[in-house]
Amino acid sequence: MVGALMLSRRPLLFAAAAALPLRARAQPAPAPWVVCAIAGLQPGLAQLEQLWRAQGGRPLRLQSGTSATLARLVEQGGACDVLALADPLRMDALDARRLLRPDSRRSLLGNELVLVTAADQPVPRRPVLAQDLPQLLGNGKLALPDPAQTAAGRFAREALGNLGIWEALQPRLMPVAEGATALDLVRRGEARFGIAYVTDAFEASGLRVALTFPAESHTAITYAFALPRRGDAAAAELLGFLAGSDAAAIWRRLGFAPR
To answer: Other C-beta atoms within 10 Å of 62: how many?
Structure first.
């Protein structure tokens, strides 16, 4: 009788043992954290995602957009665990409405504003000064991000105003949606010069930087990262990684200034 019981238990034990791996495989993978960041940060984030995953980090889903569209996404309660904007005013507005986790906001990166021209344009014998721009333009156009819609455009307007040439340039301005579009217009010869972040022009083919606007001519350009209140609080681990030394090395290679 005892032998029969022992024999009857063996299939049950084998069945239980065989079922364990199936249960383990059936465990759902953690949902990816959604990283909502402006387009200019996407190349760096794509590299950092590989490093993060190689270190055992949780899967990520990168979502690109303008500062305006991403801020609107957070306002409407859309999926977003880490937010990165180039527009401090929009981040201020989200913070004021308590849509960000307290004390999660961090300014991780800086940038510079540059004047770009086509690479085949003659190089002046003396350094180009921003005050020379109206004369250098002649009948040409100056493409820049739209000051009414973008942070880059506001920085450009501020710099040109503080240098005393904003009004003189009004007839020559070509406002566009973003810095990358301004660079395309210069590359195609539709604009004599363009204004963009140095990171936009960092590896742009067919272009060269004619000058870097003085840092004192405009408000400091910074990129704010934060955790939206509706997102996963555990994404603070990812935010810490993005602020770390490994991330700083990648940001620096792409022309950003880690802070």
So the answer is: 17
CA dihedral (99, 105, 111, 113) positive or negative? positive
117 and 99 assigned to the same domain: no
Phi, psi angle pair for 101, to nearest 5°: -65, 135
b/e per residue, 174-211, with b = 16+ CB within 10 A? bbbebbbbbbbbbbeeebbbbbbbbbbbeebeebebbb
Looking at the fold, whether 91 and 146 belong to one and the same domain comes out as: no
Could you tell me which residues are beta bridge partners of residue 110?
Answer: 222, 257
- Regarding whether 142 and 93 lie in a shared domain, the answer is no
- What distances in angstroms separate CA 58 from CA 32, 139, 203, 243, 259, one per listed residue? 7, 54, 30, 17, 25
pLDDT digits (tens, 9 = 90+) for 187-207: 999 999 999 999 998 878 899
Distance (Å, whole) CA 143 – CA 125: 24
pLDDT tens string 208-239: 999 999 999 999 999 999 999 999 999 999 99
Q: How far apart are CA 131 and CA 73, in angstroms?
A: 40
- pTM of structure: 0.82
